[in-house]
Design a protein that fits this description.
alpha/beta, Spore Coat Polysaccharide Biosynthesis Protein SpsA, Chain A, UDP N-Acetylglucosamine Acyltransferase, domain 1, 5-stranded parallel beta sheet, 7 helices, 26 strands, 18% helix, elongated, binds guanosine-5'-triphosphate
Length: 333
Amino acid sequence: MGGVTGLVLVGGFGTRLRPVTYTVPKQLIPVAGRPILYHALDLLPPEVDRIVLACGYKAEVFEAYLQANPYPRPVKLVRETTPLGTGGGLKNVASEATDPFYLLNGDVIAGFDLEPLSRTLTEEGGLGILGFVEVEDPSPYGVARFDPAGRVVEFVEKPSREAAPSRWINAGVSLWRREVLEAIPPGVAVSFEREILPGLLPRKVLGMRYRAWWEDAGTPARLLNAQALLFDHPRTDRLPAPSRLDGARVLPPIAVGAGSSGEGATVGRYVTLGRNVKLRRGARVENSVVLDAAEIGPGALVKDSVLGPGVVVAPDERLVGVCRALEDPGQKA
Ligand code: GTP
């Protein structure tokens, strides 16, 4: 089977990953050697032969990246001129949707198989089906309650912990009949989860409760956890990223971009280095992501951190749990 479109939302500002997202959009930050987006796209089943990115913020960076590093399946970019939110962003790419179509948040990292969504929607009927995962604290997410047959009967976006109807949260993956798009007003900013989804429930929306690993790479800590999960669950159909760093002490798993060097440094576990990163003698990097052309000074420590392109870490400096970039308007304020 083929001919299904995957619509992917990547237009958010990624505010929780500032200042790095002032230059690199969240979905293009590499984890375990590849951009978050490419790991997310891997979730789309083989029947998806066309991917459409609903872009807004930093659309030109996506365009340049995709051109230089093509994803194995065709990817088209559609730009929003003003941010339309998750509902408006979806509506803006409505003409690209097949019936049914997959809808994916571009920052979902998971060990899911999405094919059961298609099987269940075909067998049981309904307007759509969303994937859910169970978490300890559901309050930062969209939370659902189900009837015994697995139909979603309540959906609340970011409830208080006490008001959450369950601990099952929207995993950011779903499959919809095309007619869902008629419920979204055109040309205006709308949140799909807050303003559209609750009103769709009477028309039968199903839930698929997954028990596999999952992470939304939206904060520095979660992004690093997503990276560790990806390293620990490598896909069998992808070659592992190159993990050599000549002259360095390597504690696998790590992923190293072209042109990076680390003579006399220590790297790992769970580290991604972008391209042309320089680790000086005695530097140590652990559980971190260090983007292109960054330089870690001699004897410095970088741990549990995300460093943007070109960041320079001073000799013997200790960075633990930081998210840092060259361009940081927040610092000037
Ligand atoms: P934060 O600002 O840190 O909350 O991150 P975010 O902007 O990515 O927001 P959030 O994680 O809630 O967004 C969920 C998904 O929807 C992400 O994949 C976003 O890129 C995407 N998204 C959010 N707002 C828009 C928008 O206005 N347009 C489009 N096309 N996508 C959006």
